[in-house]
Amino acid sequence: MLISKDHLLKLIAQLKFEHALNIIVSIIIAVIIFFAVFIVFIPIESNKYHQVEVLSEQATYPATQKMARKLLIQEQIKFAEYFRLMRAHQFESSKVKQYPAMEQE
Predict the structure, then answer these.
(1) Residues pairing with 43 in the sheet
(2) Ramachandran region, residue 58 (left: φ > 0; alpha: ψ -120 to 50; beta: rest)
(3) Count of other CB atoms within 10 angstroms of residue 67
(4) Is the pLDDT score of 8 beyond 80?
(5) Could you give the CA distance from residue 82 to residue 88 in angstroms, rounded to a whole number?
(6) According to the model, what pLDDT value does residue 1 have?
(7) What is the pLDDT of residue 101?
(8) Where are the chain's structural domains?
C-alpha cells in the first residue's frame, strides 16, 4: 500500500502541535532508556575496579567484602553489578548500630 503525497500532507495537517510534542517527548524518553540500558551492560573502568579491590580488602562491612570478592573473580565487571555492590555498601554502612544496653549503677 503506497502512501500518496496528498494523503501524507493531509495526515500532517491533522497532526496537532500537542501530538507533535508528545511524539518528541516519547522519542527523548526512549533514547534515554536505550542509553541507560546500554550503560548498564558495559564493563567498568579501572578506577572503579580499584574501588572494588579496596572494598574486598576491608573488613568493616563483611557482606560488602564478600560481594566484592565474588565480583573480582569475574573477568569483567558490568556497571549493573558495580552499582549493586555500591548500593549494598551504602546500605550496610548506613545501618544503625545497636549495642546492648549498658547497666547503670
Answers:
(1) 78
(2) beta
(3) 20
(4) no
(5) 10
(6) 52
(7) 57
(8) 3-41, 46-96
Residue pair 53/44 in contact (Cβ under 8 Å)? The answer is: no
Which residues lie closer than 8 Å to 77 by C-beta, 6 or more apart?
43, 44, 48, 49, 52, 71
Mean pLDDT of 68-88: 92
Q: Under a CB-based contact definition with an 8 Å cutoff, are residues 52 and 68 in contact?
A: yes
Quote the CA–CA distance of 34 and 43 in Å, as a whole number. Answer: 17
pLDDT surpassing 90 at residue 102: no
Q: What pLDDT does residue 82 have?
A: 93
Nearest to 43 by CA among 66, 75, 67: 75
Q: Which of 59, 47, 45, 48 is nearest to 85 (CA)?
A: 48
Per-residue confidence (pLDDT) for residue 12, from 0 to 100: 77
